[in-house]
């Protein structure tokens, strides 16, 4: 195993130094037993799943191995182990989503703020911290070309986990709503200017007002992922969209070709 080159690859993929150290440490332990460069897929699975470790420790090892397989450009991925009692993530129904987006709170400002939060969460699939750190200059656009045609695309420039930046495609309709909201209620330079704890409080009022008591910010992220998957967007594109470092977090196996994130997420019309 060439862990020196793997380390350089991790930094080129913009992983944080802490994350790099974590995965290198785990893979140095793996390297004592097996060589992932040459080990067949089924032998990798047999080695990992037979380790005498706790579920949490084994899952950390699986994530490290999957990341190394991604570095090797191998499509095989190990499935994470679910502990007894694990539950599937709660995801709102389309009817519940509609109810949430139509929420009415005590004041015009509270209503506008809650609706804007929900619009962004459901379309952009952001983490809570990513939403809270959004600035107005995070809302951008650019022109793309394909097959001799040009398209203007809109996106949010988002700083995610490990200080990794990604471009999250969004519709012009959402951008227009953000601009209107910022004009009246924005807290320069931030669109919202609140903390994640404040966001939880706002969403608590939303739950009370709508009766959708299971809702939380991450549920909208899962809703968007499922929505894209059902639309036919391939898993690697969804991984990029959500900012996951490993495809196993998004789905167990990598399927489909590596498409352009803007052309797959957005329904583009030629300029």
Question: Your description of this structure?
Answer:
The chain is mostly helical. It folds into 2 domains: 3-71, DNA polymerase, domain 1, CATH 1.10.150; 94-265, Intergrase catalytic core (hpI Integrase, Chain A, Orthogonal Bundle), CATH 1.10.443.10. The chain has helices at 3-12, 17-31, 41-49, 55-71, 94-101, 108-124, 128-132, 172-185, 196-210, 217-231, 235-242, 247-250, 261-265, and strands spanning 139-146, 149-159, 165-170. Strands 1-2-3 form a 3-stranded antiparallel sheet. Helix 2 crosses helix 4 (55-71), helix 6 runs antiparallel to helix 8 (172-185) and helix 6 crosses helix 10 (217-231). The protein starts with a helix and ends in a 6-residue tail after the last helix.
Shape: globular
CATH architecture of the largest domain: Orthogonal Bundle
- Please indicate the count of domains: 2
- How much strand? 5-15%
Secondary-structure element string: HHHHHHHEEEHHHHHH
Helix amount = 40-55%
Q: Span between N and C termini?
A: 48 Å
CATH superfamily of the largest domain: Intergrase catalytic core
Q: Uncertain runs with pLDDT below 50, 5 residues or more?
A: 251-259
- Average pLDDT score: 85
The total beta strand count reads 3
Largest sheet: 3 strands, antiparallel
**Which structural class best describes the helix and strand composition?**
mainly alpha
Here the CATH topology of the largest domain equals: hpI Integrase, Chain A
Q: In DSSP terms, counting alpha (H) and pi (I) runs of 4 or more, how many helices?
A: 13
What Rg is obtained from the alpha carbons, in whole angstroms?
A: 21 Å
> Which CATH top level class of the largest domain fits?
Mainly Alpha
